[in-house]
Amino acid sequence: MQHTISVVVENEFGVLARVSGLFSGRGFNIDSLSVAPTSDESLSRITIVTRGDDAILEQITKQLNKLVDVIKVLDFSEDNAIERELALIKVAAEDESRAEVLRIVDIFRAKIIDVTPKSYTIEATGSPIKINAILDLLRPLGLKELVRTGSVAIGRGAKGWKG
Amino acid sequence: MKMNGARILLESLKREGVDLVFGYPGGTVINLYDELMNVREIRHILPRHEQGGTHAADGYARATGKVGVAIATSGPGATNTITGIANAYMDSIPMVIVTGQVPTPLIGNDAFQEVDIIGITRPITKHSFLIRHAKDIPTIVRKAFYIARSGRPGPVLIDFPKDVQISQAEFKWPETIEIRGYKPNLEGHQKQVEKAVEMLLVARRPVMYVGGGVILANAATELTELARTLQFPVTTTLMGLGAFPESDPLALKMLGMHGAYAANMAMTHSDLILAVGARFDDRVTGKIATFAPHAKIIHIDVDPTSIRKNVRVDLPIVGDTKDVLVKMIDCLKGQTEKVAAQHSAMEAWHEDISGWKAKHPISYKQSTSVIKPQYVIQKLRELSEDDAIMATDVGQHQMWTAQFFEFNQPRTLLTSGGLGTMGFGLPAAMGAQAAYPKRQVICVCGDGGVQMNMQELATMVQHRLPVKIVVLNNNFLGMVRQWQELFFDKRYSQTCLELPMDFAKIAEAYGAKGLKADKPSEVEQVIKEGFAHDGPVIMEFKIAREEKVLPMVPAGASLNEMVLNA
Q1: A10 touching B, CB under 8 A?
Q2: How much of chain B, in percent, has pLDDT values that exceed 90?
Q3: Does the annotation count B162 as an active-site position?
């Protein structure tokens, strides 16, 4: 089962290597990973999408907590958090497909951020499911390049972490 | 007062109570070594290889319970410590390793003798620090020692660039430190302890399964008290040997792959396992699917990741084993009637255990013509002092020592359990002897492993460390040969060492004493003579070449599927 784990860490060099090394060294999966500082400059937040059964998730959480630079580990599931991802998508757009791309962009409330005679570059945000859906529609039109940020997640209401 | 970074580091080590370090100089630690000449309070032992120095610091830590300290220069000096660091990491040994590093502006430039030692050691250290400013040194050292010794102990590396060693700063020792991401959970949850005690008191076929965590937490006394109060049989892992006296009738001795028949049978038939500071390693459990099928498991460990990593656990208690054991003992104090009732209810269980012990005791066939290794180990126990420290290398001799040298006190066995490092024994013994110059320190090795760090004989002679080295020589890499015999149709691929070595002569070349025995009748005399000598000794015993370690649970088999005679 897929899980989104949010890891609050010291904002120091080498910390990302400790976290990612833990995953590779112990054979845990990383589906996506994103990292950036928080409102507290001394902290960074790493969001990792991983998969495994309950026992594996328990080990992942415990092993992360064991790292000296890890301050908090939050295991988000669908009902207690909001998850978003951003994708930059370059898609072929010539002749009749130009209008079709625009329609899809409109439906998904995405944005065109660059245009050439032969392509559009689209910025799309949303849950990973939504990103996958727009990609499914654009792919037959000629997907030229795709960059995804990986998910970030935040707890709903009082759930989550200060900072 | 302002001083240079090198001096600040040494002053910080002093504040941490360090009086002995094992280190090897080089270009990027030359400033540190220069300052060392001004610091009389820190004794320095110069090994002949950084791996030896690191294992010596490890042996020192195992024998004393204090943090072992090793120093190496950058590049090859640092990479030579890796096996030593990994070894300490696997066995949770508190250590601080200080490595020199190229000057900060050169880091990342492939400078002479530069390696990213923090990157290389990341998976085998508990934590690591790169010092960037001399003013940070006291805080970093204090944090490093705190992390190394607290919670589940482990090695911490400090990388120390040459320019920082030279730069000046104020020495200010921090009275307190705060590491917000590191708060080891030391206190066992009282409610969990009470639940555990309830489970203990209704068990009819209980076993205490005890690991190195008890020794690391200095909880052997409490463990022994609990076992005797409850009259529970006790089995220990290799790392747990010495946590409970093997001379006690409740002792089942070691369990697992080369464990006692009674210990493995007791685990298999038990209805309750009280695991204390042990981690259900694959060498202990055998096949997981058939491990202790009838048992409820209570698991006490300071490291939450050890719990439910390999086996299901019915009741976890995270905490310092000593704290939890004390709480259990207290909790039992008001329940003497229940305890007494349980003693009688366990009679059948104790009879089963006595039966297993009698049926297949740990034993061997004595010979009058050729020296049996087990006989040498028994004689070592008989002729050594009660508080002698025994270091071993890795292989058959290690298992024979675990089986036949009775361990009755904690911190008297220094052995590489998790990593299984050949070459560990000799330098580890050296570290223990440096800590305790007056105690008897014995090192049992095979003829393979002893040659992996034999250069440290020179260190022993130089620093007058009178380690008694016992080489059980079968001219084979015996443990691998045993596997080849049993599981590879006797195809002895690269396990015969061919060249018959004269270890006694090697000892003498280093300025140590060399003794040897070829016949069983000579064993006792050689040991007596070796023990009586006031300096390092190699005692070489030519042993039965194809003697096997038995019993044996083949890898992947169930604990009760032991090969008893092959």
Answers
A1: yes
A2: 98
A3: yes
Cβ contact, residue pair B304, A70, below 8 Å: no
**DSSP characters over B482-551:** HHHHHHSTT--TT-B--S---HHHHHHHHTSEEEEE-SHHHHHHHHHHHHHSSS-EEEEEEB-TT----S
Chain A nearest-CA distance from B306, in A, is 9
| Span B221-233, pLDDT tens digits | 999 999 999 999 9
CB B143 within 8 A of CB B179: yes
What is the C-alpha radius of gyration for chain A, rounded to an integer number of angstroms? 18
Using a CB–CB cutoff of 8 Å, tell me whether A21 touches chain B.
yes
pLDDT digit string (tens) for B157-192? Answer: 999 999 999 999 999 999 999 999 999 999 999 999
Question: What is the model's pTM?
Answer: 0.96
**B interface mutation test: which of A62, A67, A69, A71 has the most B CBs within 10 A?**
A62
Alpha carbon of residue B38 to chain centroid? 34
Instruction: Report CB contact under 8 Å: A62, B123.
Output: no
Give me the mean pLDDT over the B42-50 stretch.
98
Interface contact B181-A66, CB threshold 8 A: no
Q: Which tokens is B58 given?
A: 């490890």
Measured CA to CA, the distance from residue B559 to residue B242 in angstroms comes to 22
Query: If you ran DSSP here, which 8-state letter would residue B424 be given?
Result: -
Distance between A84 CA and the closest CA of chain B, angstroms? 27
Q: Is the pLDDT of residue B392 over 80?
A: yes
User: Which residue does chain A place closest to B178, by CA atoms?
Assistant: A68
d(CA B421, CA B398): 11
* Count of CB pairs separated by less than 8 Å, A with B: 35
Average pLDDT score over residue span A59-81 = 92
Question: What whole-number distance in Å separates Cα of residue B459 and Cα of residue B512?
Answer: 11
Q: How confident is the model at residue B196 (pLDDT cuts 50, 70, 90)?
A: very high
Beta strands in B237-375 (DSSP E): 251-254, 272-276, 296-301, 315-318
Predicted local confidence at residue B566, as pLDDT = 60
Average pLDDT over residues B492-496: 97
